[in-house]
Amino acid sequence: MWGIGKKRSKVGKFIDRHGYTQEDLCKAAMIGRNTASRICSEPNYSPSMSTIKKVMKAIRKIEPNAKADDFFDM
Q1: CA 67: distance to chain centroid?
Q2: Do 11 and 44 meet the contact criterion of CB atoms below 8 Å apart?
Q3: Dist CA 67 CA 27 (whole Å)
Q4: HTH cro/C1-type domain: from which residue to which, for each copy (predicted)?
C-alpha cells in the first residue's frame, strides 16, 4: 500500500487514495519531481500560483469539482 509511514499533505493523500503516484502528478501537471515531492509531502509548503493552477488542472481531471482551497492554504 502506498504512503505507509510517510508524511503526506492533502495533495499527497488525494493521489494516494486514487492510486496515482507523484510521477503521475509530474506528468499530468507538467511540474518537476522536486516540486511534486514537496507538494505531496510537506503540508506547509506553499507553491507559486502558477504551480497551484497546474496541479489543480491535473486534480480536476480526477475530481472535477475540486477547489484549490481544499488542497492549499491560500
Answers
A1: 12
A2: no
A3: 20
A4: 17-60
Q: Report the 10 Å Cβ neighbour count for 22.
A: 20
Cβ–Cβ under 8 Å, residues 66 and 60 = yes
Calculated CA dihedral for residues 30, 36, 39, 41, nearest 10 degrees? 160
The structural domains of the chain, ordered by start, are 10-63 (1.10.260)
Cell of 37: 515531492
**Integer angstrom CA distances of residue 17 from 13, 50, 65:** 6, 25, 17
Enter the DSSP assignment of 72.
Answer: S
pLDDT tens readout for residues 10-63:
999 999 999 999 999 999 999 999 999 999 999 999 999 999 999 999 999 999
